[in-house]
């Protein structure tokens, strides 16, 4: 049976009858945070993430989702923020070898937690050690996480929903940014429950264009198809080389630069 998701998006102690003009938006929510990966920030509207955002990245297998996440982690650190890269897909030795191959220079904090409470405990430790810094959690991937509801090794179709709920609550409460790779089918379609798609603020897709009549046939395409805090709909043609993904061109609606 499917379940609804209960997210901590409400304002505490809000009085009934409050006028929208009486609300004061926290300064932390108005200061967007660039990742430093230019085409990625551009796809989000030009200024990066709004703190408290949760993003899911999906796409065809082999398109480079993990590569993109690693490039993001390194670029986030270069931009002066703090990034926790948590993986359940590969050993950290494998991650290190890929980082070396991509010549990532700036470093980032790594973790290998599979229980969400442990992952968030790690993130909170980092947050307390780096007060005033923007904290990012990059998770590869959602399907490797367990919320701990059942004994280790037992899960059901709602486990990813509960994990998303916990990650989202953490982001909204602490003004953190969370991005995770979502499970996909062989064709690259999202394989999880629609509840997850509704919960995330941003959805990005990285795929290889397999439509033979397309002008971009065989190319890697990155696009943001959902963005609660900015533009969506522009597509970026990406190449891949020794240093990872890079922009070759773009098409579609012009990104709306945000204030």
Describe this structure in words.
The protein has 259 residues and is α/β, with parallel strands linked by helices. It has a domain at 33-203: 3-Layer(aba) Sandwich (Rossmann fold). The chain has helices at residues 27-30, 38-43, 65-78, 92-101, 116-129, 159-174, 194-199; strands at 54-58, 82-87, 109-111, 135-140, 177-181, 202-208, 220-227, 234-241, 244-252. Strand 2, helix 4 and strand 3 (109-111) form a beta-alpha-beta unit. The protein is globular, with a radius of gyration of 18 Å. The termini are far apart. The model has no long low-confidence stretch (mean pLDDT 94).
Structure, briefly:
This protein is α/β, with parallel strands linked by helices and 259 residues long. The protein has helices spanning 27-30, 38-43, 65-78, 92-101, 116-129, 159-174, 194-199, and strands at residues 54-58, 82-87, 109-111, 135-140, 177-181, 202-208, 220-227, 234-241, 244-252.
Could you list some keywords that capture this structure?
259 residues; alpha/beta; Rossmann fold; 9-stranded mixed β-sheet; 7 helices; 9 strands; 27% helix
